[in-house]
């Protein structure tokens, strides 16, 4: 018995281990001959060396630490690991790779505030008697009334507080103090993009007589760097709403959008309308989560300011929730002739509609790349009106120089500039006329007619100075 104990089944394991080892060492570099293993297989503790967030089709670094080189043959200290991993299975790691904590969503509204218009002094006093506090108030020329921001009583649910304000003043409009944010910037490495050529943007020499002169564009965005070389010869006026110690927002987004509109013709980032005048309202501040945000209270003040300055075309490369007061404002502004262009948002194809783009009186702009394919993170829906270049668009960086940017934020300025050309050539055209003309002249993409991906299609700037007024019904 003792002499033949090596023939017992329990003693067969070392023999097969040795055989497997011999085959493994004789196999070509990077390949294993037994068990179906191959260069695409990974051990349980092999993280692959790749980045989960990449867009490289799932490729990752090799086990040797190089990029694209074949892994070396297992020798030395890896011998024991090879044997134990192959013949002594380890319990699987829970969740595979280390689980990442889900990102905490940014807040969409102030937790303790209500904004309202149309309140009388007596009604405000009544609300104060029930525990409301007036935080701020501003006269709104557009509505001929006062905009009031209120802090709700302690321990009162926000929805109940809004209902209480509406009940106290049925003629008023009240809602939450929603936050709006600039579209997420996606930095891209790559060559310059011929975005203007994609839509047939006319050069100064190609504009019809009377088109392109005396254009003033409004911009509501983050902070802007007015000292950037792109604006050295331009007419850019920056107005910051908050000067009370609130941290200034970042300058990357606002500077990039402004340069797309009015960057100097001889700068590294020529704008679409380099000779136009830009009134840029910085309505944002840096929030406690280090995010750039604008409260709806400041958005309304910014819109009223631009309206009072006679601006007829306004770009809003920002997005947030639906808000009753914002909807009322954009409707009034449209009736007064202002064309409002807004980014569709970068929440993805299945995201809820973003506002103000989703309002009927606003031109909602999505983004496409140089091949006229939809930007994969752009919002979709029946509210989408037009598509414009928004993938790797060359524009100004925040401090100096330039770089490509991607997002619907950078597509909206193309449509705003086209609307400004139309307005300059047809000063009597209504916002609805321009909205309609841009849609009718667009290059149809995707499904025939208006669709949820491209709207009416790609902006056609060749028709930017032509408007046919809609017939009254």
From TrEMBL:
Listed Acidic residues bias regions:
44-55
One Pfam family of this chain: Peptidase_S8
Where is the stretch described as Disordered?
43-109
Specify residue ranges for compositional bias: Basic residues: 91-100
Q: Which GO terms describe its biological process?
A: proteolysis
Peptidase S8/S53 domain span? 212-457
- Its domain of life reads Bacteria
UniProt cross-references to Gene3D superfamilies, sorted A to Z: Peptidase S8/S53 domain
The UniProt family comment states: Belongs to the peptidase S8 family.
What is this protein's record name?
Peptidase S8
